[in-house]
Design a protein that fits this description.
There is one protein chain. The protein is α+β, with helices and mostly antiparallel strands. It has three domains: about 5-70 and about 190-245 and about 475-499, D-Maltodextrin-Binding Protein, domain 2; about 75-170, Alpha-Beta Complex (Dipeptide-binding Protein, domain 1); about 265-470, Dipeptide-binding Protein, domain 3, CATH 3.10.105.10. Helices cover about 25% and strands about 25% of the residues. The chain has helices at about 5-15, 60-65, 115-125, 160-165, 230-240, 250-255, 285-295, 295-300, 320-325, 355-365, 380-385, 405-415, 430-440, 445-460, and strands spanning about 40-45, 75, 80-85, 85-95, 95-100, 140-145, 150-155, 180, 180-185, 195-200, 205-210, 220-225, 245, 260-275, 310, 340-345, 370-375, 390-400, 465-475, 480, 495-499. Strands 1, 10, 11, 12, 13, 14, 15, 16, 17, 18 and 19 form an eleven-stranded mixed sheet that branches. The protein has a four-stranded antiparallel sheet with strand order 4-5-7-6, covered by helices on one side. α12 (about 405-415) packs antiparallel against α13 (about 430-440). The chain starts with a helix and ends with a strand.
């Protein structure tokens, strides 16, 4: 097969970037040979470096979860329903939920998991500023009923408390993690692997925790390198420098053996957020003009090489019920752009986004806009995006990452007081629809309310969903049972090992 020149050039560059990618990380463990893979550590190349020193109160929490080092009271099954983790059972009485804490669990520093530890972790999250986004709009208090039982009370009756508590941002850590103003997860989790070393934004190391309550892991440890360059990550798999590679760019998939990659439809939408608070797109008719100018199908074919799905809404094929319930959306008529200048921001951490930005620039200019692009690393652009410094922002956004339920994502991104409201949207009808969705009990009624909230958002053109991504994960041929999780919560588990 003949490869495009950009693929070949990227591969050549990656060979330079990869020199010493896992230098200093031994593939051999110190284990006693007591099980599958005991002699080999799992080498992982991850996409985004830590943004907040691996604080569980940030998106870094999902790294802790994917490394199986920090755990929550509840976890989710494949359908998004709550099931036991550090809590064994729970029940609701009005605004209060009671959780029974699992017996026999110890933190990595040897201290015992008890109700006091749960109260400490959850209260820290609930009173943080900003709060973890899973708690957007939620007032939550936690108390110890006895050493093995906690109660969680919300200001309003909340049918999704168990699902909220499954978010990795609400992980339960030992007391040692909470010193000063930061939360340090090193040696403070309960999972099968103990986080032992973090080298800034370069690497991390984890060793097997043999006293894990769920049974001994099959691998003696994990060595992580943060490799933002997607070409370098893919090359690490080809060269044998990495065992598991997170988020292989579409442009690199053709260079890899098909047997080494797994493609999974993700609850992740590539969306153009339009600034409704100021600038050109404060005008709804110009937002409509931008929406009509976008040809998402050409972006899927040209940038994603067909490895994505054209969006019909904010929620994609990973949630099949969304398409079944969705109906037509009432929209504002478009106005002529007349040469108005807009600045679009995006980031380099996801390799396709700069190409998406270039495609959008062409499409919008063809429609009559003048377009400037501002492309940086995510860590250097997020604060400006949240402050509304751009006319538009391209974001690859997980829609059910936190609770397994999209209502939390919709609230975070589009409520007037949402913590991730890049569109600066403040719309009473949207707020009302989001509130109704959040307060509806689990099941069909909630799904319908969620779709109604999606329709309310789409009717404002504050966000133009373009495509739904599929994640491409690379696993070396000798890797056994790496997780392929569409919610991006699991990667290396107790069952994962290298032959």
């Amino acid at each position: 097969m003949r490869l495009p020149a950009r693929h070949l050039f990227s591969a050549a560059v990656a060979s330079t970037l990869l020199t010493g990618c896992f230098s200093g990380s031994s593939a051999e463990g110190e284990g006693d040979g007591g099980g599958h893979g005991d002699g080999k550590r799992v080498r992982v190349a991850m996409m985004q470096p830590p943004r907040s020193a691996l604080s569980p109160l940030s998106d870094d929490a999902f790294k802790l979860s994917r490394w199986s080092t920090a755990e929550t009271l509840v976890k989710l099954d494949a359908d998004g329903d709550a099931e036991p983790a550090l809590a064994t059972e729970w029940q609701q009485s009005g605004r209060t939920w009671t959780f029974e804490i699992r017996d026999g669990v110890t933190f990595h520093d040897g201290t015992k998991l008890d109700a006091e530890a749960v109260v400490r972790s959850l209260t820290t999250a609930a009173t943080a500023s900003p709060k973890p986004r899973i708690l957007d709009g939620v007032e939550l208090t936690v108390k110890a009923k006895d050493p093995d039982t906690v109660t969680v009370t919300t200001a309003d009756e909340d049918p999704l408390v168990p699902q909220r508590l499954s978010s990795p941002q609400l992980s339960i850590l030992a007391a040692k993690a909470y010193t000063g103003k930061t939360v340090n997860p090193v040696g403070a989790g309960t999972g099968p692997f103990e986080l032992t070393e973090v080298d800034g934004t370069s690497s991390a190391a984890l060793d097997r925790y043999d006293a894990y309550w769920g049974g001994k892991a099959k691998s003696p440890g994990i060595d992580v390198k943060f490799v933002p360059d997607g070409t370098a990550r893919a090359a690490a798999l080809r060269s044998g420098e990495a065992d598991i590679v997170e988020a292989v760019p579409v442009s690199q998939a053709a260079l890899l053996d098909e047997d080494l990659i797994t493609e999974v439809p993700m609850p992740r939408t590539n969306t153009l957020y339009l600034n409704t608070g100021k600038g050109v797109f404060k005008d709804a008719a110009l937002r409509a003009a931008a929406r009509e100018a976008i040809d998402a199908e050409s972006i899927v074919k040209g940038v994603y090489e067909g490895r994505a799905d054209v969006a019909e809404g904010l929620l994609g094929p990973a949630l099949p019920w969304a398409a079944e319930l969705r109906s037509d959306v009432r929209r504002t008529a478009a106005a002529e752009p007349n040469g108005r200048t807009v600045t679009i921001g995006t980031f380099t951490d996801r390799a396709e986004l700069p190409e998406v930005a270039a495609s959008l620039q062409q499409q919008l200019e063809k429609a009559g806009f003048k377009v400037k692009l501002d492309v940086r690393e995510y860590a250097n652009i997020e604060s400006d995006a949240l402050a509304g410094e751009f006319d538009a922002f391209i974001l690859s956004r997980a829609t059910v990452l936190d609770s397994g339920d999209p209502a939390a994502y919709l609230y975070s991104d589009f409520a007037s007081d949402g913590s991730f409201n890049i569109s600066q949207l403040a719309d009473a009808q949207v707020d009302a629809a989001l509130k109704k969705a959040g307060g509806t009990g689990a099941g069909e009624a909630r799904r319908k309310a969620v779709i109604a909230a999606e329709a309310a958002v789409l009717g404002t053109d504050a966000a133009v969903p373009m495509l739904h991504e599929r994640v491409i994960q690379g696993d070396a041929a000798d890797v056994v049972d790496a997780a392929h999780d569409p919610r991006e919560r699991e990667l290396v588990t107790t069952d994962t090992y290298v032959k």
